[in-house]
């Protein structure tokens, strides 16, 4: 229940994040658990620094130190960001750098109504809920029944089920449902063929207009989505990529090589040809390997009907070789 | 309806791909777009997203315009029908003589024509090479001309996305190069949402960070923001441009960092003697004066509401309005007390976006943050954050300490012509983030 309100102390049923020498673990705070044979046993969480009796966390303050047999760690109340880093993966997920941009690009604020498909592992959903609550709502869809169900249970356990409706549905085939017609401020799609969903987005977005965003790993998906958006009267269509790099900070001692003494004849001979002293820097090192691509974010505004541009000519420009086709191609103007 | 353009609103004028923020303070207020001066009479009452056509006033040379509500913006590519194109550019020689019209001809054309498409069509028909160009280059040409001759603009409602984009494009150094992706991460990294007390120290983002945090705190919620700044007046441009309702804006308590901390640690002086200070002439005396007054003021037993005052200024050099002599205390007096009360209850997050060395500021302000809660510090170069990183690592009173940097690239997506934009905004500063431990 620890995703809903700020808390000072850990209670039974919370998810607590254990921070242990640069690693994060999500712990389900239950004093007991079922073992493989189905027997109720003491819940003991194994860490690289020794075992942790989960029972001992209950009543502890968030932010406080936890003693382990071979060291210690700290417990932190989960946030959607910490959850994205520790959640059980049922699908590929979206991480904080993209999530942050998605929230801002969709113009989401408390009170917004947002539609998401697919739910996947719920990484983005947690962040959407946090942004739109208490007056807003997230409608999230997945055509994978089990994923949809597990996500719903997770929202329940995390105490945020009031702000989200998770449904099992193929949104490309069946849209978002009539009850959502004209209800959404924003729609987000993370599924393989977002362009097929664009006509449904048109139905779901409020009459006063709204925002759209899709996340696609491949540029071909982006091209098709952009064409569909243009054909349906969206404006401010734009595609971007966001990457975050973590810089490693270290103090480095480096040798200093003095060459200036060579200008004068030295009294001391022979002179040793090696670095004469050391100096210190705090340096930031860019990682050898860092995320190079996650996905393209394509965003657009659906203006209200009165401001939508009526399609004039099809946007297709084909790169044809034969000049004989030019005549046809140019005749598409109405 | 909230969807109508109202006098008093901040509005965004979008002409082609250029956006400008404007305070629509009277029905016939004027705005300058490039060399054009546009009178906005007629906007009030129209719904947002409306498109307006620029109507030249009698003398076209002066580039003064009035506006007229339009059905939609007509695109050149839709109006101009191109009959023939070439296959490649093997026969195109750019010797500067392909245009038959002289510069003077073109000038007269511009003043005489009423429609952009007429101008461009005349240009095209007098060009020797246009029809040999490939369809792609013709398209590119029209897009370029469209940008130049576009006769329409649309009115948009400001929001964080648009304001951040405008401010970054216009004067990135006024907001410490804080780009939209980095701004978006500041909000999520410290878990800003509808609840909690959030602490911000900001000395140079023109109110952008405060606007970001307050927008995520939301309307009709319980969250509060204490917005500390070093000057006499907080920088508020972005905050005001958001058109927040009063209720929401009131939950952002902007205070001078010295006064607020003095109030917190020393309480207010109960010495009842009236402020003694004579009117100092010096311009930079204000903060001294302030200090003096503050310590000689009595503590109000009840916080009285007295909120109307003139703060539309966007820079912090404006003088503090002279406090009325008698019982009426200035707004900042009550703001300091309010901020200090919120600080007593401890904060749920800490955001610093500063020009000064962040180290001292962080060390002081972190004591207000509850254990287990996140912080983030923005700085436009890495070195000060690297120093602070080393210090915090040694103290080990924070967890998950991370220094990050972002990269963002926009794409041109056109059929068969998709590629990254040819220029990218490469500077967006650094974030040092983590969680406060007990
Ligand atoms: C990559 S995952 C989404 C991950 C999610 N954004 C997250 O951050 O955890 C894509 C999901 O879309 C679902 N999906 C694909 N096509 C769909 C469709 N037509 N309707 C509904 N869900 C669909 C898949 O079952 C999968 O769970």
UniProtKB/TrEMBL annotation, chain A:
The cross-references to Pfam families, in alphabetical order and at most eight, read: GCD14
Keywords from UniProt, A to Z, are: Methyltransferase, Nucleus, S-adenosyl-L-methionine, Transferase, tRNA processing
Q: Which residues form the tRNA (adenine(58)-N(1))-methyltransferase catalytic subunit TRM61 C-terminal domain?
A: 71-301
- What is this protein's record name? tRNA (adenine(58)-N(1))-methyltransferase catalytic subunit TRMT61A
Which family does the entry's similarity section mention? Belongs to the class I-like SAM-binding methyltransferase superfamily. TRM61 family.
Q: Name one GO molecular function term.
A: tRNA (adenine(58)-N1)-methyltransferase activity
Primary residence:
nucleus
Summarizing the function annotation, the protein's role is: Catalytic subunit of tRNA (adenine-N(1)-)-methyltransferase, which catalyzes the formation of N(1)-methyladenine at position 58 (m1A58) in initiator methionyl-tRNA.
> Which domain of life does this protein belong to?
Eukaryota
Enzyme class per UniProt: transferase
| Regions of compositional bias (Basic and acidic residues) in chain numbering | 315-334
Q: Which GO terms describe its cellular component?
A: nucleus; tRNA (m1A) methyltransferase complex
Q: Which PANTHER family match?
A: TRNA (ADENINE(58)-N(1))-METHYLTRANSFERASE, TRNA (ADENINE(58)-N(1))-METHYLTRANSFERASE CATALYTIC SUBUNIT TRMT61A
Catalytic activity reads: an adenosine in mRNA + S-adenosyl-L-methionine = an N(1)-methyladenosine in mRNA + S-adenosyl-L-homocysteine + H(+); adenosine(58) in tRNA + S-adenosyl-L-methionine = N(1)-methyladenosine(58) in tRNA + S-adenosyl-L-homocysteine + H(+)
Q: What subcellular locations does the record give?
A: Nucleus
Q: Which organism is it from?
A: Spodoptera frugiperda
Q: Give the span(s) annotated as Disordered.
A: 292-334
**EC number(s) recorded for this UniProt protein:** 2.1.1.220
* Signal sequence, renumbered to the chain: none
Keyword Transport in annotation:
no
Q: Record-annotated residues binding S-adenosyl-L-methionine?
A: 121-124, 142, 190
Q: What GO biological process terms does the UniProt entry carry, in alphabetical order?
A: tRNA methylation
UniProtKB/TrEMBL annotation, chain B:
Q: Which UniProt keywords apply?
A: Nucleus, tRNA processing
Q: Looking at the record, which segments are called Disordered? A: 268-331
Q: Just give the chief location class.
A: nucleus
Q: What is this protein called?
A: tRNA (adenine(58)-N(1))-methyltransferase non-catalytic subunit TRM6
Q: Which stretches are transmembrane?
A: none
Entry GO terms, CC: nucleus; tRNA (m1A) methyltransferase complex
Organism annotation: Spodoptera frugiperda
Q: Which gene encodes it?
A: LOC118263115
**Belongs to which family?**
Belongs to the TRM6/GCD10 family.
Tell me which InterPro entries the record gives: SAM-dependent_MTases_sf (IPR029063), TRM6 (IPR017423)
Question: What does the entry give for GO biological process?
Answer: tRNA methylation
- Which Gene3D superfamilies does the record match to this protein? Vaccinia Virus protein VP39
Q: Where in the cell is it found?
A: Nucleus
Q: Which domain of life is it from?
A: Eukaryota
Which Pfam families does the annotation name? Gcd10p
- Regions of biased composition (Basic and acidic residues) lie at 276-308
């Amino acid at each position: 229940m620890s995703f809903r309100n700020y808390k000072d102390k850990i209670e039974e049923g919370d998810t607590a994040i254990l921070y242990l020498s640069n690693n994060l673990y999500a712990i389900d705070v239950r004093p007991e658990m079922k073992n493989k044979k189905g027997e109720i046993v003491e819940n003991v969480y194994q860490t690289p620094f020794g075992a942790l009796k989960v029972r001992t966390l209950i009543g502890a303050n968030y932010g406080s130190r936890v003693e382990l047999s071979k060291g210690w760690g700290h417990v932190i109340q989960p946030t959607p960001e910490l959850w994205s880093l520790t959640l059980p993966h049922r699908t590929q997920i979206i991480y904080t750098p993209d999530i942050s941009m998605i929230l801002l690009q969709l113009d989401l604020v408390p009170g917004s109504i947002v539609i998401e498909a697919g739910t996947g592992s719920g990484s983005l959903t947690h962040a959407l809920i946090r942004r739109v609550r208490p007056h807003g709502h997230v409608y999230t869809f997945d055509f994978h029944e089990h994923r949809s169900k597990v996500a719903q249970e997770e929202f329940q356990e995390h105490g945020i089920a009031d702000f989200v409706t998770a449904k099992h549905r193929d949104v490309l085939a069946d849209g978002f449902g009539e009850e959502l017609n004209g209800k959404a401020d924003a729609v987000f799609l993370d599924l393989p063929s977002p362009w097929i969903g664009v006509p449904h987005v048109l139905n779901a977005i409020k009459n006063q207009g709204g925002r759209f965003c899709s996340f696609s790993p491949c540029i071909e998906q982006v091209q098709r989505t952009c064409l569909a958006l243009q054909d349906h009267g969206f404006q401010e269509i734009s595609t971007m990529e966001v990457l975050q790099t973590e810089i490693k900070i270290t103090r480095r001692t480096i040798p200093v090589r003095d060459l200036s003494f060579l200008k004068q004849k030295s009294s001391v001979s022979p002179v040793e040809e090696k670095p004469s002293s050391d100096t210190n820097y705090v340096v930031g090192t860019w990682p050898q390997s860092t995320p190079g691509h996650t996905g393209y974010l394509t965003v657009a505004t659906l203006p209200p009907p009165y401001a939508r541009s009526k399609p004039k000519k099809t946007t297709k420009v084909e790169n044809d070789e034969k000049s004989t086709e030019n005549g046809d191609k140019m005749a598409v103007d109405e | 309806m909230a969807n109508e353009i109202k006098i008093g609103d901040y509005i965004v004028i979008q002409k082609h791909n250029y956006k400008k923020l404007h305070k629509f303070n009277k029905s016939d207020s004027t705005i300058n777009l490039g060399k054009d001066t546009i009178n906005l009479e007629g906007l009030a009452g129209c719904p947002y997203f409306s498109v307006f056509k620029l109507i030249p006033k009698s003398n076209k040379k002066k580039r003064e315009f009035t506006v007229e509500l339009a059905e939609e913006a007509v695109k050149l590519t839709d109006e101009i029908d191109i009959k023939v194109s070439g296959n490649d550019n093997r026969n195109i020689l750019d010797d500067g003589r392909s245009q038959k019209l002289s510069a003077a001809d073109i000038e007269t054309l511009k003043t005489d024509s009423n429609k952009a498409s007429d101008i461009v069509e005349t240009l095209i028909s007098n060009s020797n090479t246009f029809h040999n160009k490939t369809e792609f280059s013709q398209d590119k040409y029209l897009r370029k001309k469209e940008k130049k001759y576009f006769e329409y603009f649309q009115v948009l409602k400001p929001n964080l996305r648009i304001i951040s984009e405008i401010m970054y494009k216009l004067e990135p150094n006024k907001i410490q190069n804080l780009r939209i992706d980095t701004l978006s991460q500041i909000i999520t990294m410290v878990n800003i949402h509808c609840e909690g007390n959030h602490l911000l120290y900001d000395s140079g983002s023109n109110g952008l960070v405060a606007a970001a945090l307050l927008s995520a705190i939301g309307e009709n919620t319980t969250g509060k923001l204490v917005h500390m700044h070093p000057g006499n007046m907080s920088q508020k441009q972005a905050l005001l441009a958001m058109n927040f309702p009063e209720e929401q804006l009131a939950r952002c308590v902007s205070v001078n960092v010295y006064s607020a901390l003095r109030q917190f640690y020393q309480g207010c002086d109960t010495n009842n003697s009236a402020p003694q200070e004579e009117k100092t002439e010096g311009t930079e005396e204000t903060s001294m004066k302030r200090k003096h007054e503050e310590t000689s003021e009595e503590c109000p037993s009840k916080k009285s509401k007295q909120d109307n005052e003139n703060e539309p200024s966007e820079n912090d050099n404006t003088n503090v309005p002279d406090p009325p002599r008698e019982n009426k205390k200035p707004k900042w007096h009550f703001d300091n007390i309010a901020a200090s009360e919120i600080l007593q209850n401890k904060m749920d997050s800490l955001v610093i976006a500063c020009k000064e060395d962040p180290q001292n500021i962080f060390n002081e302000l972190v004591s207000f943050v509850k254990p287990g809660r996140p912080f983030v510090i923005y700085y436009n170069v890495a070195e000060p954050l690297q120093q602070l990183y080393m210090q915090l690592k040694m103290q080990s009173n924070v967890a998950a300490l991370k220094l990050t940097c972002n990269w963002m690239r926009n794409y041109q997506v056109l059929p068969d012509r998709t590629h990254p934009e040819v220029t990218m905004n490469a500077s967006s500063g650094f974030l040092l983030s983590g969680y406060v431990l007990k």
